[in-house]
Amino acid sequence: MNLTLKIWRQKNAEAKGKMTTYQVSDISTDMSFLEMMDVLNEQLIAKGEEPVAFDHDCREGICGSCNLQINGEPHGPDRGVTTCQLHMRKFKDGDTIVIEPFRAKAFPVIKDLVVDRTSFDRIQQAGGYISVNTSGNTQDANSIPVDKESADMSFYAATCIGCGACVAACKNASAMLFTSAKVSQFSLLPQGEVEADRRVLAMVEQMDKEGFGNCTNTGACEIECPKGISLENIARMNRDYLKASVK
Questions:
Q1: What is the pTM of this model?
Q2: Which of the residues 80, 147, 193, 247 has the least number of beta carbons within 10 Å of its own beta carbon?
């Protein structure tokens, strides 16, 4: 395939960015989107030009680092995939593809297509953990009974990889789906119940401090989430937050 790429280029966090047009040719339909970006960068380096900076790590759909907005959609036109799992067969020969970084106040651009998502780290640090007694009277986790339904719901919430697609898809740049998944992951288990009230209050407070918007129940976050995190987590977090606030 021969493609026209319109890519956001920005030298650094302080610089003013702009869209730059590139042409790539002989792109295989079996390539992943990031492999196509590799081809472009190889061409740019061969011509002595600056390659396009973009985030990536595992390229297996589990690290959550490949945060690209492709033709206006987080991770592109496919569903249930990250950018590294998006294949070029989803596009046609001659297509023009617009590639941008995720757009959110709390995700400032570092360079080109790379954004700073450490705001997610700070939300998790505010309460995304459990405290365990390690004084010698530690209870074996395997001896704590957990009902199957709660274990399953906790596991599903824990599949969130923190990619930020929910934020990029939301008109308010809300992090409610991410935050609620991390709250549910622990609050659904007996080990997490002890700190449940403090956790939900602290994580929601940190989310607001980071500048994320509020949820309006549009549902775009769930649709664009590569792991299919359910909106039920937001409803659960809202209930937990309300109960914790009035205690």
A1: 0.93
A2: 247
Over the chain (247 residues), what is each successive 10-residue block's mean pLDDT? 98 96 97 97 97 96 94 96 97 98 96 98 95 77 87 96 97 97 94 94 98 94 97 96 94
Domains in the chain, CATH or no CATH each: 3-111 (3.10.20.30), 117-133+143-246 (1.10.1060.10)
Q: Are 93 and 79 in contact (CB under 8 A)?
A: no
Instruction: Yes or no: say if 63 and 57 are a contact pair by the CB < 8 Å rule.
Output: yes
Among residues 219, 230, 221, 244, the alpha carbon closest in space to that of 185 is found at: 230
The C-alpha atoms of residue 23 and residue 30 are separated, in whole angstroms, by: 19
Q: Which residues of 69-106 are buried (b: 16+ CB within 10 A; e: fewer)?
A: bbeebbbbebeebbbbbbbbeebeeeeebebbbbebeb
* Token pair for 6: 């319109």
CB 81 within 8 A of CB 125: no
